[in-house]
């Protein structure tokens, strides 16, 4: 028996939270963020009470999943900071995240979560360095700035969320190609 019984509970709570996040990522990617929260709890192998103890609302759960995606974007941006093609690679990385997490942005756009604004700012900051490097390297079309990059990502998110599962991959690639032509030189 453990000398500190609370440490076991804390470890279990951490494990349960991670299981909920993994289940949410999987179900949101597969069926969108409107999936019943009870299904998320069941997929994680926890009760609804445990889910609501960790996430009071659907928006909090979705935002937490989104925050982990922002952390991935920030890490990838740091890796690409010295490449002139870093902006293209980061753009593609974000498109891949959107493909894996369809409709998350739609849920978050209507969320009343104060820290969501800081997540958006963090994403902009991650792109700024690679965008400047891309301009210097001649990879980005003249006149393309952060507004155009994020408009393109929003357009992609909306278009990708609407694709039927059968034709999803083919259309996602067409969307990517069209946006590349609009934003990037090569």
Describe the structure.
With 186 residues, the chain is mostly helical. The chain contains 9 helices and no strands. The protein has 2 domains: 56 residues, Homeodomain-like (Arc Repressor Mutant, subunit A), CATH 1.10.10.60; 129 residues. Helix 1 packs across helix 2, helix 5 packs antiparallel against helix 7 and helix 8 runs antiparallel to helix 9. It is elongated, with a radius of gyration of 19 Å. It starts with a helix and ends with a helix. The N terminus is likely disordered.
Keywords:
single chain, 186 residues, mainly alpha, Arc Repressor Mutant, subunit A, 0% strand, elongated
What is this structure, in a nutshell?
Residues 14-73 form the HTH tetR-type domain. The chain has 186 residues and is mainly alpha-helical.
Average predicted local confidence, pLDDT: 85
Q: Alpha-carbon distance between the termini?
A: 62 Å
Shape: elongated
Query: Measured on Cα atoms, how large is the radius of gyration?
Result: 19 Å
List the uncertain runs. 1-7
Q: Give, in order, the helices and strands.
A: HHHHHHHHH
Strand content: under 5%
Approximate helicity band? over 70%
Q: Structural class, judged by helices and strands?
A: mainly alpha
By DSSP, the count of extended strands is 0
- What is the count of structural domains? 2
Number of helices: 9
- Multimeric status of the protein: single chain
How is the main sheet built? none
Task: Furnish the topology, listing elements before pairings.
Elements: H1 5-31, H2 37-44, H3 48-54, H4 58-80, H5 86-100, H6 104-109, H7 116-136, H8 146-162, H9 168-183
Helix pairs in contact: 1-2, 4-5, 4-7, 5-7, 5-8, 8-9
